[in-house]
């Protein structure tokens, strides 16, 4: 009985580790997934699932010189969440590093 419990607990730990590893490795494979992961981890889980994401051509072109050096683009959220100060988190900068993408809040245009 005790041996079965140890095997079951070990199997659960291994299964959870594989699942977490899979999620972490795929969380930054596209700009949209990086933005959704950023929103989820910054305490906006509903917005992470429901908001639309579009490339902000105007802001990207406006800051083209800086963004080209950083290998980044600006994306806008169609249903942006509010931050703690009451401002909408509309623009997000997505930077590509290797094969992964990383998102951070960029500010208003």
What's the helix and strand layout?
Elements lengths: L1 H25 L4 H11 L3 H6 L2 E3 L1 H6 L1 H7 L1 E6 L13 E7 L2 E6 L4
Antiparallel strand pairs: 1-2, 2-3, 3-4
Could you please describe the fold and organization of this structure?
By secondary structure, this protein is α+β, with helices and mostly antiparallel strands. The protein has 5 helices and 4 strands, in the order H-H-H-E-H-H-E-E-E. It has helices at 2-26, 31-41, 45-50, 57-62, 64-70, and strands at 53-55, 72-77, 91-97, 100-105.
List keywords for this structure.
109 residues; alpha+beta; 4 strands; 20% strand; elongated
Silhouette = elongated
Calculate Rg over CA atoms.
19 Å
Quaternary: single chain
Low-confidence spans: none
Total number of beta strands: 4
Mean pLDDT: 84
Number of helices: 5
- CA(first)-CA(last) distance: 64 Å
- The H-and-E topology, N to C, reads as HHHEHHEEE
Helix content: 40-55%
Give the strand line-up of the largest sheet: 1-2-3-4
Derived from helix and strand composition plus strand pairing, the structural class reads: alpha+beta
Major sheet summary line: 4 strands, antiparallel
Q: What is the strand content? A: 15-25%
Summary of the model, kept short:
With 109 residues, this protein is an alpha+beta fold.
